[in-house]
Write a structure and sequence with these properties.
It contains 3 helices and 6 strands, in the order βαββαβββα. With about 110 residues, it is an alpha+beta fold. It has one domain (about 10-105): Alpha-Beta Plaits (2-Layer Sandwich). The strands form 2 sheets. A 4-stranded antiparallel β-sheet has the order 2-3-1-6. The chain has a two-stranded antiparallel sheet with strand order 4-5. A hairpin with a 2-residue loop joins strand 4 and strand 5 (about 80). The chain is globular. It starts with 6 loop residues before the first strand and ends in a 7-residue tail after the last helix.
């Protein structure tokens, strides 16, 4: 296999160790005190629908993401200590997302 081609995001955070009851809405509320959140998502198991204990929060501004990472890493959230770090992005996925955004901007009916 080739070199690790992941890119560390400047706006998207990985949040691990989440309480299984926590959902994207609560994650967004908790992190929005640091700035404008573009999206917040808790990853769910496809078969059971239960939380996989982690999620992602993406900020509009890199400065807000940096502050949130620094302030929230190691903090307690709904009774669990969370690990917050900058997300690692696969360049191919990022490129596909950008192509989808461009298609949507052009008025094409593209679904995720």
């Amino acid at each position: 296999m080739g070199e690790d081609q992941t890119i560390i995001s400047q706006t998207k955070l990985f949040v691990g160790g989440l309480n299984r009851k926590l959902r994207g809405k609560e994650l967004r509320e908790e992190f929005s005190k640091f700035g404008e959140v573009a999206f917040a998502r808790v990853k769910l198991d496809k078969e059971t629908g239960k939380s996989r204990w982690f999620g992602f929060v993406e900020f509009v501004n890199p400065e807000d993401a940096a502050k949130a990472q620094k302030e929230m890493d190691g903090q307690e959230l709904m009774g669990r200590v969370v690990k917050v770090d900058f997300a690692r992005e696969n360049p191919e996925r990022m490129e596909n997302r950008e192509e989808t955004k461009i298609a949507e901007d052009d008025g094409d009916d593209v679904k995720f």
